Structure formats: C-alpha cells, structure tokens
Amino acid sequence: MPVSFEKPEWLWLALIVPPLVIFSIRSLTGLGPVRRLIALVVRSLVVLAVAVILAEVQRVRRNENLTVMFLMDRSLSVRDYADAQEAYTEAVCRNIPPHDNVGVIDFARQAYLEQLPMRGGYYLERGRLPEIPNPERTDVAAAVRLAMAMFPHDTAKRIVLMSDGNDNMGDLLAEARRASADGVVIDVVPLWYRLRNEVYFDKMVAPATAESGEIVPIRMNIHFSFSGVARDANRRATGRLDIYHNQVKVPLPPELARVTLDSGNNSFVLKLPIHTDGVQRFEARFVPDSPDMDTTPDNNRATAFSFVSGKGKVAIMTMNPAHDQVLIDALKSENVKTALLDVSQDIPDFAGMLDYAAVILANVPANVFTDDQQRMLASYVEDAGGGLIMTGGDESFGAGGWIGTPVADVLPVELEIKHKRVIPRGALVLIMHSCELPRGNMWGKLVAKKSVDTISSRDYIGALAYAAGGESWEVPLQLATNKTAIKNMIDRMAIGDMPDFDATMRLALTSLEQTDAAQKHVIIISDGDAQPPSGAVIDGFVKAKITCSTIAIGYGIHVQEKTLRNIAQKTGGRFYPVRNPRTLPQIFVKESKVIRRPLLIDDPFQPQVAYALSDLFSFSGVAGDTLEGPSIPTLGGLVLTSSKPLAITPLVRATTDGQDPVLAHWQRGLGRVVAFTSGYWPVWGTQWTSWPQFAKFWAQTVRWTMRQEAPANFDTYTTVQGNRGRVVVEALDKNADYLNFLNLQAKLIHPTKGAIDMQFTQTGPGHYEAHFDVDHSGQYIAN
C-alpha cells in the first residue's frame, strides 16, 4: 500500500468511534435527523483524524530512478588499465534508462570528482582524464566516501568500484559498512593482472652522519617474489647491481656487481669511502638479466643519504650568473667556499639545501620557485638553522612577487609599504573564462587567490567572469586591503562559458581608466574559444597604457591560441600556452608582480648608518668612524621595504618621508636572515663593488648567517615499516652512562607538509623513540 504508519498502535483509538456514536445519539435527540447525522459523522472523523495523526501516517512514493557512481582506480599498480576502465564505463552507460544518473570519480592517494551525477550517462571523452597526483598511494576508502557525499537524496544509490584492491591508505571495509548501513550497494569490477616474478627494493639504509675519509656501510634489502611454475633451480633471479654515489656510478668488482636473489628477502652490505663533505647521496639499481625475472621495473631502485660535516659552503642562487660574479669573486677572496646555482636551470631539494650553510637569493623572483620550494626555503631557515640572504634588484623583494609567500615571513623586512603615500598604486584585473581543462574552474580560482596574495594591500584587484546573467564583476575592482574577503568572493565565483571577450574587456577598461593606478594590468585565463574583442577595445587598452597578458589553458583543438596571442601582442602583454595546470600559480605570480614596479627606486643615494653596533660591522677596519660619512659608497637604487619590529636595521636610506631599510637582519627560528634591499651590481652597485671593504663586508655578513654545525652527541638511526617511520635516539654521556628523562625536541621536514613537531618517548634506559607517518614519496629529514 502507498500508506504506512510509524506508530500503528495509536490506531486502536478508532475503537472509540462506535461507543461515541451510541452515546451521541441520545445527547443529540433535540436535533433534526440531518443535523444529527452530520454531527455524528464530524465527531467520528475528528477521532479518526486524531488516531491517524498520532500514528504518524506516511504516504510512500516509489522512485525507480537510480544514481550510479563509477570509481576508477588510477594508481600506479593499474596505470595500464585507465583506458579499459573508461571503455567499460562507456559501454555500461550506453543503454541506461533516461532518468538514471551517472557520476564518475577517479582516485589514487586522493579522490577527485570528474563528472557530477547527471542524466544521460557518461560524458567524459576517452583519454581526457587529467593526470592524477600522487599515484604511488591508493586510498579506495576516500573514493567511496566522496561517492557517498555526491549521491542525490531522491534516487536509489549504487557504487561501481573498479580496482585491483591494493590500497595502502584508509579503511575500505569501514567505509563499505557505512555504505551498507545507508542501503548503498557496492559492485566490484576487479582489475585482474598477474605478476609472475617481481623484484623490488624493500629498503636501503645509510648512516645518518659520517666523517670525511670514513668508509660507510650501505645496507640493502631486495625482495624477490616467485609466482611461476618452474624447477627449483629457476626460483632465483640474477642480475647486475649498480651503485651511484652523488650521481656518479661506483666501479664495483664483478663479485659484488653480480647478484643472485633467492625467493624472499635478500640482504647486501656494501662499504663505500667518502672523501667530500656535505650531503652524500647513494642510489642502488637492480638490472635483471632477463625481463621474465621482473614484472615492474619502477621499484628496482632505492636511495639513501648521509650528512658529512665540513667547512661551511654558501650557495648563491641567481638568474644571471654574470651579474653576481663580482660577489662570488669577493667571497672567494675572503676564503668563503661558494657554489653558483642558476635557478633558471635547477633548484636543489631539501636534502641538497642542507649541503649549504647559507643561501643567497641574488635578485631572484618568486615565480621561479613552486609553492613547495618556497615552503622548503622557509623551513630551511626556521627548522634546519640555515642562513638566508636576499639581495635587491628589479626581480627581488616585493617587486619580484615575494609578497604573501612563506619566504616573506622569514625576512626581517615587510614587503608591503603601507605608510608611503607617495608610492604609485597598481591595478590588476582578472578575466576568468570556463576552460575545457578538467577541473579548470578550480585551477582558475586557485591561481586568482594566488594573485591576491602577491599584490600589495595598496593595489587594486578585481575579477570578471561570465555567469548566467551575462558579464559581471564577480570581485568588484577595489583596494586589496581585506584579502580574506576578496578570496571568499573568488571562491563563490560562477565561471561560465564566455561568448566573447569584448564585453568583459570593455568593463575592465572602463573601471581601470577611473582609478589612480600608475600601472594597470589585465590577465585573461581562457581556452580561447570566445569571440575576439573589437578593435575599439584594443585601441582603448593601448591608449590607456593597460597591458593584457593571456593564458591559454587546455588541450588540442579545445584551445584557440590565435585570439589570445593577438590580444597579448597588441596590448604589450605576454602569451602563455599552458599544458600542465600545475605551472599556473608560478605564471600568475610572474604576471601579478608587473604592477609592483613602483617599489623600485632608481635614484642614487648615500646609505646612512642607523646602528653601528651591528654584528655585520664587526670586521676589522670597518667599525666605528669608518662607517660614517662618505666612506660608504653611493648606491644607485633599492627596493622599497619597511623594517619589522624585532629586526635590526644597521643601514638605511634617509628621506623626508622616513627611513627605508638598506640592510636588516634578525634571528628567525634556528636560522639567521639578512635583507640587503640594494645590490643589482651592474646597475645599482658599481661603486660598492669597487669599495675596498666590499669583500670584507660580504664575508662578515655571510659568516654571520651560516648555520653553526654542532656535533652529534647521540647515536641516531631510523627505520621505515609500511606507512610508519621511526626515529631512535640512544643517549649516553662521555662515561657511557645512560641519560634518562631528557626532553628531546625535533622537527620532521615532510616532503609536502613542511615542518612537523616530533614527540619523543623514552622506552628504555637512554632509549628514545618518535614515530611519523610515511604518506608521500620523498625525503623525510629529522633535525
């Protein structure tokens, strides 16, 4: 029946109706027959209605519609089955009823919604699923959890899971029980494959620290799984073991280079001499004699590293080595060991950073570094005790897009100038267009918020998009004084498929012309399929000196680059063809800093001593009266900043509007940081490079920032088992007695999460342990 009762026991009240009718007949004798009948019926209906209401009557309506969520496993173990999963989903959806919904989720370490539940079946084009991050991990439970959240409430629910079941994160069975409790059925399409023979590195361990000249043991565990059917003599794998030390292949004698692996775990120990200091990287690779002995070659390599203390070395990171050669020569003349790193070619990872006691960012823009690399630089200072020096130039400090970055937090100067009313403002307008790229709107919002972080609070920011009502200001053009509110507006943006660029560019032109900004810039992110702007709009941009850069994002024929390229060329902007969306944040940082050019001051000035007792002035011949008057050479310019409250500012540029920092320094966490807002030696520093004290000044500055190496008083070793890592410390004093009840503090440098506090627990006499999650591939460094 279409009617049910939640509390049917209340229906017994209906039995009151017959006695009520009998007694009512006598009490209603004074009424006429018709009125008496009506009264009896009404009283009976009231009683019945009360009974039905108390019984909580419900009308049950059946809905035959169904929502099916397809879950595609995109992890490394089934990477060859991506096309097969798409083909299966497409085939299943060909004959579905018209009112059923289909949604698609792909997953590895994280789950991503690729198609919202919608009628009509599977709409994704074959082979167009985006590359999935972190495919080396698999969390099937996260995909099931996301699917449960995406189901509409008014349909039946079903999940189709395509996977090999090899999950190494999450609790799939727990999520399956929750789905079952909610009446959701999970069908499984197993992805079958057979690994006949498999060789993989279980671990490779090197000492955490070593001394130069020491012979260190390298321990390796290689596992061989035999799954075929063969004679006992064939239950072995033979091959070559290649060892690399700092990317150089180590010549091994034949008896060590040739290895035979028995079924199960195989242990090897190799001893290598170390003759250099710094980070020592070791890599081992197993090359089987026959491809039949191993199915997956990706897991046939392992890495480890050791730290060898030695004389501190300084890395000079630069985009133009010729500009900074004079600084390198000056430091070498003072016996400071230096290494030149061209960041346009390569940036070291965290372990490589620890090879240097200090790092100099010589006029390097922020967009060269990814967000993870910027966090790595900040962690290198705060958590690893490294030194950092940033020198000025046209691509440095606020002018280089460092505003709002993790590195800006560790600098002793503020990159935003809020008290200088004479600084011209900049204005930035973002035009967001829905893109064919999967998750394109998500990437658009992400990079838009990145632009908000990069600009100054004195600058204008606005965002335009096409929504259901037409072109409109999703973020009205305004000063970026409340960046949090602006980001919230960006999150709420509705980015539609824009028919033409003319309307949005005309809105941007009209509003920008009404501002007092000296530098006006527009960024368009689009797949380019909108109609080009009119000639009048382009002419208006050129006349108002508004530059416009365009970013073409998408794949193949879905991107119309010609229109976007023409807009950029005619307005004096840049054109960026983007294939990988992960490069978008760096592009937006590069473009957003265009409006920060007013921070550059190209007027020569005489630096003034504001604090002569600074540690940076303690070198011989430069203290006291040597720093006064004309003995300090003139500098040709600087980048405007302001000192942070706890920073020491020895050198300043004095103006009628206050003092601008030229040299500032402070202690930040475990490290020391120096900001020299001038530099740019061929343009601003020609007189400084010929100053007799130039080399001594920079040698003293660098030595003050360098990380102080401390001896390792305790024995420390690490192990990794599954997804858990363990750090063990054995604490003994000089008499070999146990040290108990110590408060050991440590930081774990995670490959993606930055610094994490580690809590040590004493588990025995002088024995301390701390644990951490190993949830990403990469280097985990405990300090």
Short description:
This protein has 18 helices and 41 strands.
Describe the protein in words.
With 783 residues, this protein is an alpha/beta fold. The chain is 23% helix and 33% strand. It contains 18 helices and 41 strands. It has an eight-stranded mixed sheet. Strands 9, 11, 12, 13, 15 and 16 form a six-stranded mixed sheet that branches. Helix 11 runs parallel beside helix 16. The longest helix has 22 residues, at 33-54.
Element layout with pairings:
Elements: E1 3-5, H1 17-27, H2 33-54, E2 57-59, E3 66-73, H3 82-92, E4 101-107, E5 111-119, H4 140-150, E6 156-163, H5 172-181, E7 185-190, E8 197-205, E9 209-210, E10 215-226, E11 236-245, E12 248-249, H6 254-257, E13 258-262, E14 264-273, E15 278-288, E16 301-308, E17 313-318, H7 321-333, E18 337-342, H8 350-353, E19 358-362, H9 371-382, E20 387-392, H10 406-410, E21 413-414, E22 426-432, H11 440-454, E23 460-467, E24 470-479, H12 483-491, H13 502-513, E25 519-526, H14 535-543, E26 546-553, H15 561-571, E27 575-578, H16 584-592, E28 600-601, E29 608-609, E30 638-639, E31 642-643, E32 648-655, E33 658-668, E34 671-679, H17 686-689, H18 694-705, E35 715-721, E36 724-730, E37 745-750, E38 754-759, E39 761-764, E40 767-773, E41 781-782
Parallel strand pairs: 3-4, 3-6, 6-7, 9-16, 17-18, 17-19, 19-20, 20-34, 22-23, 22-25, 25-26, 26-27
Antiparallel strand pairs: 1-2, 4-5, 8-10, 10-14, 11-12, 11-13, 11-15, 15-16, 21-31, 23-24, 28-30, 29-32, 32-33, 33-34, 35-36, 36-40, 37-38, 37-41, 39-40
